[in-house]
Give the backbone structure.
Amino acid sequence: MPRVSVGLPVRNGGELLVRALRSVQNQTESDLEIIISDNGSEDGSRDFLEAAAAADPRISYFRQNPAVRAYDNFHFVLRHGRGEYFMWAAPDDTRDADFVGRMASALDETPEAVLAFGDLNIVTPENPAGQIRRFPFQTQGMGPWARLRKLSRMQCYYIYGVWRTSAIKRVPYAYCAWWPDLPMMLAAAVLGTFVHVPGTRLHYLEVLKSNLDRVKHQDLTHRFSLPLGVAGLIGATYRACAGVGGPVIGAYSASLVALKQAINLPGFLYRRLRRPPDTLAEQP
């Protein structure tokens, strides 16, 4: 049994994929299995990944044919994880060499924690060196209700931390097209705390995309309705959180997400009036 399973779902990773995979392979924590699910790549990624799998016995390579939704590809690599701990790796992000090892050690030392995450460095095409962003996601010392209140308002960068595999696999499958990682993250927060490990960084590539571009990438579709997307998000939040905490927790979590969307709606409408719809990049 490997200590840490790393799942790398990818579609058309291009040159960034090479750096992302090397970042995983070169971790100081070497007791890894690396599960790669190639979601029907059409850019030559397949050749690179097959060669990498042949050269590194830690890599298991799978190819989805036909391609599936990005959410389902994320779940595919999770289902195949056998390690005590699990980490998702995006095909365009990198991390410091001690990131995985230090996260795993933090989980060893904190039995009540289900996730460990380090510092967040936001990289953009204009600023490849990146900039550390304050990201106070940690929830140690908080009960589940307070954890839900805090995390319902935050972006989900910490999905790329290291998880206790037994905990993240308990979270029910609850797909939605709009902000699909939030229901999963809130359900995980019901199960335990999230801990911060300072001094080691995830280098997260941030590229602004329109609403439609984001959904195209996730779901391989050309249509998107924001009202239906928000409704799907609220419903998925209820299903995921109720699945681990019961209907009251589910209803509370869904109400927090609905409130956040309602609060941000005026700003979204204002931006929509000022700019063409296909240039909107912010989430409401």
Notes: Residues 277-284 have pLDDT under 50 and may be disordered. Residues 211-279 form one domain. Strands lie at 4-10, 32-38, 59-63, 85-88, 94-95, 113-124, 127-133, 162-164, 193-205. The longest strand covers residues 193-205.
